[in-house]
C-alpha cells in the first residue's frame, strides 16, 4: 500500500498538538499546586518546540504513520519537585492525571465538532473534509493517548497515580520496579499484552464518542 502524505501530515499534526496539550496540562497543574519548576522552564505552553522529544514525538510516530501502524508517542517529561507540593502524594497524583484528562477533553471536543460539521460536498474543494479528517484523527489519537498513559506502569502517568495510592511495603516494592519501567513497558508492547489492555476501553470510548 502507498503512503498517503495528507494522512501522515494530519496524523502528525494532531499528535504534536495533543502531546503539547498533555505536557502543558502537567506543567500547569504542577504550577497551580505549588511547584513552579515546569513553568519556569516554559513548559506551560502549547508551543510544541518546548515539549518535543526527537524519538518519541518525531521518529516513532512518523514511522508508525508511514507504516500505517498504531500510533503512540511521547514528549519530554515535565519535571516535578515533590518538595514544593503541599501534599506530595495527593498533588503528584493530580498532576499525573492531568495529562490523560486533557487528552480525553480534546477527544470530546473533537467529537463535538464532528457532530456539528455539515456534510462534505462531494463536488469541488471543501474545508469540511480535511477538518472532519483532523477531528476523526483527534478523537482516536487522544483516546489512545489517554488510555495508554493511564496504564499503571512507570514511567506512565498511571504509574505515578498508582504510586500515590500505595503505602508501606507495596510502595517500596513499586519504587524498586520503577527504574525498569521502560523495559517492562516495551515487553508489554512487544508481546501484545499492552494492545489487549488498552484496546477494549479505547474502542468503548471511541464508540461512545463517535
Describe this structure in words.
The protein is mainly alpha-helical. 68% of the residues lie in helices and 0% in strands. It has helices spanning 5-32, 37-40, 54-66, 88-116, 128-149, 157-165, 168-177, 181-191, 193-209. Helix 4 (88-116) packs across helix 6. The protein is globular and about 55 Å long. The relative contact order is 0.12.
Give the count of helical stretches.
9
What ranges have pLDDT less than 50 throughout 5 or more consecutive residues?
none
Seen as an oligomer or otherwise, the chain set is single chain
- Beginning-to-end CA distance, first to last residue: 27 Å
Q: What portion of residues is helical? A: 55-70%
Concise synopsis of the structure shown:
This protein has 210 residues and is mostly helical.
Amino acid at each position: 500500500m502507498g503512503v498517503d502524505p495528507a494522512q501522515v501530515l494530519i496524523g502528525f499534526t494532531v499528535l504534536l498538538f495533543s502531546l503539547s496539550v498533555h505536557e502543558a496540562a502537567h506543567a500547569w497543574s504542577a504550577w497551580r499546586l505549588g511547584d513552579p519548576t515546569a513553568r519556569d522552564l516554559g513548559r506551560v505552553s502549547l508551543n510544541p518546540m518546548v515539549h518535543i522529544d526527537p524519538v518519541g514525538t518525531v521518529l516513532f510516530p512518523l514511522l508508525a504513520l508511514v507504516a500505517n501502524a498504531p500510533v503512540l508517542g511521547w514528549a519530554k517529561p515535565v519535571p516535578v519537585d515533590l518538595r514544593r507540593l503541599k501534599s506530595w502524594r495527593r498533588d503528584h497524583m493530580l498532576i499525573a492525571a492531568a495529562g490523560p484528562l486533557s487528552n480525553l477533553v480534546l477527544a470530546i471536543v473533537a467529537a463535538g465538532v464532528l457532530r456539528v460539521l455539515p456534510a462534505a460536498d462531494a463536488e469541488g474543494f471543501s474545508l469540511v473534509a480535511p477538518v472532519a479528517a483532523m477531528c476523526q484523527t483527534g478523537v482516536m489519537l487522544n483516546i489512545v493517548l489517554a488510555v495508554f498513559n493511564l496504564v499503571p506502569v512507570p514511567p506512565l502517568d498511571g504509574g505515578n497515580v498508582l504510586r500515590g495510592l500505595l503505602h508501606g511495603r507495596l510502595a517500596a516494592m513499586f519504587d524498586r520496579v520503577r527504574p525498569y519501567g521502560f523495559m517492562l513497558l516495551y515487553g508489554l508492547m512487544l508481546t501484545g499484552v499492552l494492545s489487549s489492555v488498552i484496546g477494549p476501553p479505547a474502542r468503548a470510548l471511541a464508540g461512545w464518542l463517535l
